[in-house]
Specification:
7 helices, mainly alpha
């Protein structure tokens, strides 16, 4: 096992921890802030494991999330981040069709971050969907911790969504 495989998977562990924490946040700002930290770790991991289209998507996500967190995000910047993610994904795709998965996933999530900014349930739902796409990509680049993280994050996000839905239903019945 090469040092790059070990280091790439080690950074994925740090990203997994951050992402699992993001699923438990109660505000959109909290979700995005913790996911920004995880994107830093994912960027480093994916560069080490030579999944460049994924690495640029993670890097763009850092700035996209920071823009979305701002009190008054620039309405034009959201489109800059979306376009930049797609353009860089095309330029840095070294894995053919599999390299498109993080590009498409980031595109979908970018649109969701700005469209569902104040709806943490919708944001978590979209997040659960794109985690599957990143899981497949991670498997191909041999980011096995990332695959495990994607499975764990998917399950934990679904659990939080179900728990929050039950809580919402209970609150509606009590009012």
């Amino acid at each position: 096992m090469g040092i790059d495989l070990i280091l790439g998977n080690l950074f994925s562990i740090l990203a997994m921890i951050s992402d699992s924490i993001s699923s438990s946040r109660k505000t959109t700002k909290g979700v995005l802030l913790v996911q920004t930290v995880s994107q830093v770790f994912y960027t480093v991991s994916t560069i080490i494991l030579k999944g460049y289209s994924g690495a640029v998507q993670n890097a763009v996500s850092i700035f996209r999330n920071l823009e979305a967190i701002r009190e008054k995000p620039n309405k034009y910047m959201k489109w800059v981040w979306v376009a930049l993610g797609v353009i860089l994904g095309i330029c840095f795709n070294n894995l053919g069709a599999i390299g498109w998965l993080p590009v498409i996933g980031n595109l979908i999530y970018s649109l969701a971050v700005f469209h569902f900014k104040n709806n943490e349930r919708a944001l978590k739902t979209v997040f659960a969907c794109i985690v599957v796409m990143f899981g497949i990509f991670n498997f191909v680049i041999r980011n096995y911790v990332g695959v495990g993280a994607n499975i764990f994050i998917f399950v934990s996000t679904i659990i939080f969504l179900i728990r929050d839905k039950k809580s919402d239903n209970k609150n509606k019945k009590n009012t």
